[in-house]
Amino acid sequence: MRSRYSAFVLDELEYLLKTWHASTRPASLEANPPGMKWLGLQVRSHTLQDATHATVEFVARSRLAGEATRLHEVSHFVREDGQWFYLNGEFIQK
């Protein structure tokens, strides 16, 4: 999760696609809008369901044009050939 957050911060779109599971991977991703500033990542919990499935709950904070945003998600990961892949996520609304 931390490596994917870092990739978002650095606009490493190839890495994000490479670590996204093929069954749910989009064809492409857009770079951060100009002026986007990522402010931090808080991993709230992580749960290993079994040897090949896990979830991570996190909050990522950002700011764009003076407006702060929080992305709160529970992400689902699957492990294949020794590598973890992002499968999908559920946004948590407050």
Summary?
This protein is mainly beta and 94 residues long. Helices cover 15% and strands 52% of the residues.
Structure description:
This protein is mostly beta strands and 94 residues long. The chain has one domain (2-91): Nuclear Transport Factor 2, Chain: A, CATH 3.10.450. The protein has helices at residues 2-9, 13-18; strands at residues 37-50, 53-64, 67-80, 83-91. The protein has a 4-stranded antiparallel beta sheet with strand order 1-2-3-4, covered by helices on one side. 6% of the residues are buried.
Give the topology.
Layout: H1 2-9, H2 13-18, E1 37-50, E2 53-64, E3 67-80, E4 83-91
Order of helices and strands: HHEEEE
Strand order, biggest sheet? Answer: 1-2-3-4
Number of domains: 1
Query: Roughly what fraction of the amino acids lie in strands?
Result: over 45%
Q: What gap, in angstroms, lies between the N and C termini?
A: 22 Å
Labels describing this entry:
four-stranded antiparallel β-sheet, 2 helices, Nuclear Transport Factor 2, Chain: A, 94 residues, mainly beta
